[in-house]
Amino acid sequence: MPNASEQSVCSFCLKPLSGKGAEVFRPGDAPTKKSTAELEPVLPEWLRDAREKARHADAEKTAEDAQAAAERPTPKKEEPPDFLAGLASVGGDDQTDEIPDWMRSPPPVSAPSIEKEKTFPRRQEIRWEGDGVTDELGGLPTTPASAAPEQDAPLLPWMQGSDAASTENEEVSNWLSKAAPQEEARPISPFAMGSFKPPSTGELTDWLDNASSDANITPAAKDGAMDDWLANLPRGEAPAPSEESNEPFDGAMGLPAWMQREEPAAQPKEEASAPDWMTREVPFAEPKPELDLPAWVGPFGESAEPKSEPATPEWLPHTPFSESNEESEMPSWMAKSESPAPDWMTREVPFAESEAKSEAEAPSWMSAFAPSAEPAEETGEAAPTQSFELTGESDLPSWLGSLETTEPAQGSIEPPPADWPPADAKSESPDWMDIFRDGASAAETPPSPEVPRAAAFVSTSADAPQTGQADDLFASEMPDWLSNIAPAESKPAEAKEPTQENIAPAELPSWVQAMRPVETALPSEPAVTVEGPLEDRGPLAGLRGVLPLASIIQPGKPKPQSIRMQADESQQASAALLEQMLSAESEAKPLRGEGTLASQRALRWAIAAILFLIVTLSLMTGLQTAPLPSSLPAETASILPALDLLPNGAPVLMIFDYDPALAGEIESVAVPLLDRLLASRRPRVLALSTSPTGAALADKLFAHGLKRHGYQPDSEYLNLGYLPGESAGILYFAEYPNTAISPADWHLPAAQDVTRLGDFAAILLFTDQGETARAWIEQTSLQRAGRPMIVIASAQAAPMILPYAQSGQIAGLASGLRGGAVFTSSAADSPARKYWDAYQFAALFAAAMIALGGLWNFFAGLRARRQGME
Amino acid sequence: MSDFIVGIVSFLFTIMILSYLIGDNVLFRLAVHIFVGASAGYVAAVAIHQVIWPYLFVPLFEGSMLERGLTMIPLIFFVLMLMKMSPRLSSLGGPAVGYLVGAGAAVAISGAVLGTILPQVDAAAQPFDWLQNPNPLGTLFNGIVMLIGTVATLIYFQFGARRADDGSVKRNVIIEALAWVGRLFVALTLGVLFAGVFSAALTALIERIYSLLALFGF
């Protein structure tokens, strides 16, 4: 059967189907597409023959199967699991060292048989029944292997010898029985780990096929003993005690087909042609006319006949495989062996004694399964209970049986479900056997896209721990004679097999390449060759042309740059000065000592206490020892003439622009002035203020004067209120007094005949801020029309207003308590008089303290300088 | 009675303010907060009663159409000024503020030039007109002193200098001498201002102590 077109690895030889597969595959390389058609000529000869036969026999096989099924409703011939298939192909791979030679040898091309070769299903499709999951038998690459002949497949001579169950073969099976305990000591069973999976090359499955084919024609097989026997394989239990196995073999006991094939061997078999080696081992076996034996099995079959051909190995005539063959002898290696017969062979002794009574004989290694291999007829129980089942018609070598039975606990193979139907060799067979029934169709189906697994017998990196044990089993435990059991015919085929190419150290195995997603990774279009340097290090190693600029931009020696600043001395001096200033800013100033702060606080309290004491004592005592100022300053002296020039009852604008905090000082000056003015000229007073609090202060000031001088509100006194806008408001009021202030107030008698600023006879400004006085002076200089403007200011604002008085812009300036004292007579009840003594003493005290402080600082500076000089 | 209550309140607030002598304390802060709050409330009341109502709402509700139209301009500015309270809409109050600043600056500059600079320049030159002065020497001396003081003070605030050969920066010797004289005038001016401030504060203190003494019968 040809390989599928999408396969990249040959299904038969596991070789790459394209030439690129043999190329060294390095990391970073693009995946290559495989073509298996190219490797067709390099297939082994026997494999090509088998493939060719398989192609031609498919049609015939199908027709024959249908005809046989119609003639007799016998159960379909089950194909044994090809768990050993593929050994040849795998053995020919790079894993040669790990597989015995007898496994690597190509499968014996069976003799011409009626049944043509049949392609086994792919390895992934072979499943152990009872897994319930996708537990695969194989694990080998998805290579459909050519199936061994279903019938007449040669059985290994040593297995035939076990069938004979003669006393001579006790020695043969003894080493195998020893192998079982040794296998028990193994920590992990390949079966248990699920990695021990039979190969698929069909190399050793021929005998299984024969066994299965024989089972169809043996009465024992018809009784279903074969399935029961297999169904009761004690996979998960310890080997059966020897007592049970020593029971006389009963004909009713189910026997595998291969064990019972000797019986029907005497019957004429039309369809299946048993190999000669099978018939000769049974004394009563008659040669089959249509016997097809593989070439390499031929000598075994012929050895049973009197006229054995010289092709028989030397050791074969001495093998105790045939009880009836008196000439058969132990193999040389067995004859020479000084060790006694294996135990398992000794257990077969009673079994062998009953051989004459029984038509079917079980090999000695099968005795291990005896406890559970009760006939289905007797137990009537469901056969598949504990272990995975092979088939009712397939056999396992003793070494495999012991291997499985001695690894009960570690198997990943779980016992089949309890609800399984009882094993019936005739009517029912395990499900997985359906695969083999439909092997032809399954083989025709395209390979599944599943990722192939490594062969169980192939030591891979991933399955090394598991497969290593199997390798040890086959490599070290196998006797030499088993390794050399390959027939002579196979040797030429093996010789014709093309030698495996030596795989480079970095070359990936073919099965690894087969695992690569070639179809998905390969672009549909041919890969564009990227030119450029190949990165040989770093994370981009293996990539080419990923850094194209690296070849263009060649880093050269950097141009030397001068690090010296181009600055002249002046710039450096400025920089030094700036650095000095910055450093001075960052330097923390030394904190004043606690003593210094405490002394300053105490000094402040002391000064305050003294000042309070002086003022309080002066006021409490009512001292008027300090004389009032006798001479008036020039700016103040001009106020009295201006007031004297006012006409009686003339409107006078009084502006109150001072804060309540300085009301005491301002009132001390304003009260004597107003008393003098109101008493002498009784003007109509209109109050105005550019400060929100000025109107209230005006009412407070006029309350005493109005009450004292009998002024009537709205007729002689009118408070215009607050004038907003500061300078702009002042200018606006100077321009349009009637519109700047609520027009309703201008109809009152106090504001009668006042339409502009020049209509006021005089303007008196009470202020504590020089800016306010300057604003009024500046903004009303033109609108006053020469009307006098007298400023009553606080002492703190007097220095700023004095220039306007000296320049003649204002008529007079009276500031502070001293200015009030000018207008105060010597009357004792005047505020200026009452405050004057306290003011004088307090001012004197303040001056003294200032002088003392100055002197203290002066001497402190001298002392510090002197200490600095010293 | 009211005078007595006013006197007691005045006395308490005076003591609370004077407690600042021992440092910042709760009584001082309480008195300051009360004064600030009372002043703000009073100012708001005055502004509403004497500015907003008579100058905005009365013309808007009771005025003629012309007055109402003209009132819309300050009303718009009023609304725009309120936008300054919102950080997101404060930019809308820019035009109103600009108008106020511009108008105030124009008035102040014109008033300063016409009401301060020119009259003061003229006044500074008057002492040197000995023909019109009865005491020309004295007036001239005063004029010279004021001139020196004015020039020296202005030179003191002149910071132009030249770099010497050694890299040091020094002003001219004459300029430096006049600046030193100007510094004397500045010091004298600041001294006079401090004396005026101290005199004003001392007078306020005397008035407060006197009121307290008067409250208690002294």
Question: What's this, in brief?
Answer:
The complex is a heterodimer of chains A (870) and B (218). By secondary structure, chain A is mostly helical. A 6-stranded parallel β-sheet of chain A has the order 3-2-1-4-5-6.
Proportion of helical residues of chain A: 40-55%
Oligomer: heterodimer
Strand order of the largest sheet of chain B: 1-2
Tell me the domain tally of chain A: 2
User: Which pair of chains forms the biggest interface, and how many residues does each contribute?
Assistant: A-B, 62 and 46 residues
Radius of gyration of chain A: 65 Å
Envelope shape of chain B: extended
> Roughly how many Å is the radius of gyration of chain B?
27 Å
Helix/strand class of chain B: mainly alpha
Regions with little confidence, pLDDT below 50 for 5+ residues of chain A: 19-23, 74-82, 85-98, 105-157, 159-173, 176-206, 211-227, 233-254, 261-274, 281-292, 297-313, 316-329, ...
Class based on secondary structure composition and strand pairing of chain A: mainly alpha
Query: Strand tally of chain B, please?
Result: 2
Q: What does the main sheet of chain A amount to?
A: 6 strands, parallel
Mean pLDDT of chain A: 63
Give a quick account of the main beta sheet of chain B: strands, pairing sense, barrel closure.
2 strands, antiparallel
Question: Largest beta sheet of chain A: what is the strand line-up?
Answer: 3-2-1-4-5-6
| N→C terminal distance of chain A | 120 Å
Helix content of chain B: over 70%
